[in-house]
Amino acid sequence: MNIFTRAEFLLNITRSQGIARRYFVVNGFDGALTMLGMILGFQFSASTPLSITINACLGASIALGVSGVSSAYISELAERRRALLKLEEAMLEDLHESAHSEAARWVPIMIALVNGSAPLLISLVILSPLLLTHAGVVLPISPLFLAIILALIIVFLLGVFLGRIAGTSWLRSGVQTLFIAITTSVLIFLFTSN
Predict the structure, then answer these.
(1) What are the domain boundaries of the chain?
(2) pTM of the model
(3) Where do transmembrane segments lie in this chain (predicted)?
């Protein structure tokens, strides 16, 4: 059994696929909105050197990633240990050498990696126009404006993903999440522009 098949098996016996999917969307959404907010803040502020904008956004991205990994690992480890203990009590048997015990050790790590990588990777995609410009690549439009467009597209795609999972209208779900991002943008404009 290769590592991916084994991981899928462990997720199946703990019924954790939905948890991992939910963490991916929730923290991915957090990452996209956080980057959108930070970039809009820089866009509406006085001119800021690109390197400062990149460092601030990268700092927030890394913090979101570390927070996602650590918080999910701690909470999922506690939940998996509790579930294993209850299963042992119900079966009146020590399950330390079982697949359930292996799942109690590895599922929290898998979910933590999903939870932490989602905001980090999404943030890096949104920041890519800034990073490219900093590396000397000339873009046809402002890197901040392009990053804002990317953030809105990603938020819309996360909504589409949720719509497909729920079996509802992907377009309606995408528009709903896009509406949240636009409302966030309007609030940021109202509170940060002078």
Answers:
(1) 3-193
(2) 0.85
(3) 24-46, 52-74, 106-132, 144-163, 175-192
